[in-house]
């Protein structure tokens, strides 16, 4: 099933429920930065996300330095934010709650 | 033991032995981009590096999207490239040889 980009209204509604994420109008994606106690904690978190991403066949763009992880979610096939990004963001939030 | 930045001559010698790495004069570090078959391969590689980095207490700055991993090595305490970066780069090269 093709994944489509959320329209402006649906995107606004989704973002209201994702206060920890920032919409990036340049990329059409959303970003969140997380800080952990140390590298082992940060990479442990990344490993959990990696398994989730592989199962969902939807992968983040992400950057890590020591205890910091910067995540960018977008759906290239849809040209912007899709429901799959929203689901991934919710899963990430639940994992770090 | 404090880690010191390589002087220009030692850095040039080290870079001669690291043809897959590019010196970034802005950051004072070195960069290498690797491509894998898919995300699972890329993240598997990252996991091996993460364990190595944790053992060495010397962590990369890195970015991943799907099958691509961009690695940046520098030594913040030394203000640039140190022997620890060279050792990490060699270990990464050996792992992907």
Task: Kindly describe this structure.
Chains A, B: Belongs to the pterin-4-alpha-carbinolamine dehydratase family. Chains A, B: Keywords: Lyase. Chains A, B: InterPro entries: PCD_sf (IPR036428), Pterin_deHydtase (IPR001533). Two copies of one chain form a homodimer. With 97 residues, chain A is an alpha+beta fold. Chain A has a domain at 30-96: Gyrase A, domain 2, CATH 3.30.1360.20. The first copy, chain A, is built from three helices and four strands. Chain A is globular, with a radius of gyration of 13 Å. Chain A starts with 7 loop residues before the first helix and ends with a helix. In chain A, 31% of the residues are buried. At the A-B interface, helix 2 and strand 3 of A face helix 2 and strand 3 of B. Strand 3 (61-65) of chain A pairs antiparallel with strand 3 of chain B, so a sheet runs across the interface.
């Amino acid at each position: 099933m093709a994944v489509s980009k959320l329209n402006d209204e649906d995107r606004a509604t989704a973002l209201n429920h994702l206060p920890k994420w920032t919409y990036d109008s340049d990329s059409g994606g959303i970003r969140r930065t997380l800080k952990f106690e140390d590298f082992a904690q940060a990479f442990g978190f990344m490993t959990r996300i990696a398994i989730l991403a592989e199962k969902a066949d939807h992968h983040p763009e992400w950057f890590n330095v020591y205890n910091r992880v910067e995540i960018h979610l977008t759906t290239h096939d849809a040209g912007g934010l899709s429901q799959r990004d929203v689901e991934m963001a919710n899963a990430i939030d639940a994992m770090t709650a």
